[in-house]
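Follow-up to my post from last week.
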Amino acid sequence: MRTVGEIARHVFRERVRDRVFYTLVVFAVLLIAASYLLGQLTAGQEVKIIKDVGLAASSIIGLFVAIFIGIGLVSKEVERRSIYNLLSKPVSRRQVILGKYAGLVLTLFVNVSVMSVALYAVLAYFNAVADPTMKAGWEAPAPDPRLLIAMGLIFVELVVITAIALVFSTFSSPLLSAALTFGLFVVGHFNADLKHFEQIVNSRPAAYLARALYYVLPNLTLFDVKAQVVHGIRVAPMAVVSSLAYAGVYIAVLIAAAVFIFERRDFK
Amino acid sequence: MHDRQASGPDVDEQLLYLRSGPLVDRLALSYDAVVADAYWIRALQHYGSTRLSKKPNKRYDLLYPLLDLTTSLDPEFAIAYRFGAIFLAEGYPDGPGRPDLAIELLKKGIRAQPVKWQYIYDIGFIHYWWREDYREAAGWFEPASRVPGAPWWLKPLTATTLAQGGDRASSRLLWQQMLETADNDWFRQSAQVCLAQLTALDHLDQLSGLVARYRAMTRQTPASWDEMIRAGLLRGTPQDPAGAPYVLDPRPGVVDLAPESPLQPLPPNLRRGAR
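User reply:
Got it. Predicted complex:
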């Protein structure tokens, strides 16, 4: 466990050196610019749009970090031949995978946390300057605590995507890994369609295949409660718990797959 | 009556590459709300810039498709339905003059959120104000009043609309309630303008009465407000609620709003003798 923690810390420090957190500056600039412009353009919908932009930007920036760093976690080490140096130490391949994954999850956690704080700061400003009649028109309070549910599930989605990127990183080139991970991210948002495929095709084997794919491919729509939260619609606690459980199982399987592939890989 | 906008060649190239709401919803992945915001801003810009345009034959062709896309991507976007309906119903040239599309948009909102009494009320409002169909309007106010959480005044409004729809008193009641329940500056300003127009109509009636009195006293039509002031019928040049002086046409002795008044145009059906 200590070794895993050491590797995770090393990955995190490396990301800081890589200036990954510059993405936070992009996020802050985006939010401030949006806040300034939207008041003129949106006919009283500033708070809704700031929330939409903030949540979407957190998700997109996090997605880029998860994919572009996730795909390099192992393949970069192989490319730079530093993997030999790492494996010559008393570190198991399983620990390498777990440590690298934990390091990137920590990076994402810090990233999403800072973006959440920035979003709340902008919303708190709007809350302070808005008059009571304007506030009466809001579907949910500006600095709504429920935004944390949306942010939390964005983080969980990113953790799943990181695990997917890590699996591809263990056996594929960075470019192909990025394409495959992004492809699964897109497919993950259409996954629910596969469940009822038999309603649109007559072929029984095709329907079975679609049903099988439904269970194998990630269902990322489970982590999307952004619109509900922005409109002040209650998010059922059981839905959040089952999404977390789904993510836990899915990540465990992906990490096991990454470890399985990495342990059998020949670097000679 | 206001259902069609002027036809003619398009003055600007207006493009909307994707018009299918379900398709754009798929393409937006989990970012449908933020894409809806982008379409909403585009709808506002399209409406605003076309309305302000001085070009002849201006067209609002993209307004409904943009609002349809916005509400397909974010079916709970209440303001897009409510503002969108106001924009669509607005008579040409200030809007496309399409209350039919406004009602279609609001019905889409009711399908998405059946508990929103505001959408049902807004359909009644469009029938009342733009179509002058008071029976149909009352037919929407009544079910709106039965939605849990609907305000108490919807019930008397239904009765008033049925009994005396189209007169100034019921119109004032409608706009007064709109003003008091408005949760948005734009709605509030619209209601204030319409209430000011109703006040201006009352002023015009009173001023016409004074002109008739002057004529009875002097057997002449007043040439200007000054003559009426000198006759002791007025204390100063009368102004409309927006601050523009009323205009007196001396030959027929007709009183009206100044052409530059922000309250122009007044609703023709509420002028005295219109009904």
